[in-house]
Amino acid sequence: MDPEVSDPMEWFQEHLDAAVRACCSNPERRIGYGNLRHEYSRWRRGEGATNVAIIYETPGGSTTQLNVTYDPQTKSFSYLSADLECKVESCDPVEVLHAVEEHVRTIPGKRERQLQEQIGLWVEQGMSRSELFAQLNKLLQAEFLGGRITTGELQRGIQYAIKHYTRTESNGG
């Protein structure tokens, strides 16, 4: 962190705002990051703790939230580790921002895995190819921004569906 910065939360907020804007620079990318957004809220008046909620969705509308809490009395941040197994505490806003950015970088992959799981479920339920493609088209046009898919996700989803159907058909299913 820049030694000239006296308020770690102010530094973190400025840089997090810029990082989220960078992931949402156009509508297609905004969807690809699950309508990534964030919100700040104070727990107590005045010098109380600040909670930062970083929120996004996966195809179909499942919402995920990452939280960072800042305590101005100790000038420390806390959040869950990447594996969600333990609480991490740090007084370094750069370290915290890197942890958030690393999580954000995983969003497109999580969205793709979620879409593949949904396609697999549709195939297992006996959905025909035309019904499956109609469902994918609905996700492309969904009104719920974070649950919508990008054209690239649609293309990869169709490729995955075709492979999934080919495997299912060759296995006698």
Instruction: State the secondary-structure class.
Output: alpha+beta
**Number of β-strand runs:** 5
Fraction of residues in H or I helices: 40-55%
Please give the largest β-sheet: 5 strands, antiparallel
How much of the polypeptide forms β-strand, as a percent range? 15-25%
Topology readout:
Layout: H1 8-23, H2 27-32, E1 37-42, E2 50-58, E3 62-71, E4 76-80, E5 87-90, H3 93-105, H4 107-124, H5 129-141, H6 151-170
Antiparallel strand pairs: 1-2, 2-3, 3-4, 4-5
Description:
With 173 residues, the protein is an alpha+beta fold. It folds into two domains: 8-107, no CATH class; 108-170. Helix content is 50%, strand content 20%. The protein has a five-stranded antiparallel sheet. Strand 2 (50-58) and strand 3 form a beta hairpin. Helix 1 (8-23) runs parallel beside helix 3 and helix 5 (129-141) runs antiparallel to helix 6 (151-170). The protein is elongated. The mean pLDDT is 87.
Summarize, please.
This protein has 173 residues and is of the alpha+beta class. It is built from six helices and five strands, in the order ααβββββαααα.
List keywords for this structure.
5-stranded antiparallel β-sheet; alpha+beta; 2 domains; 173 residues; 20% strand
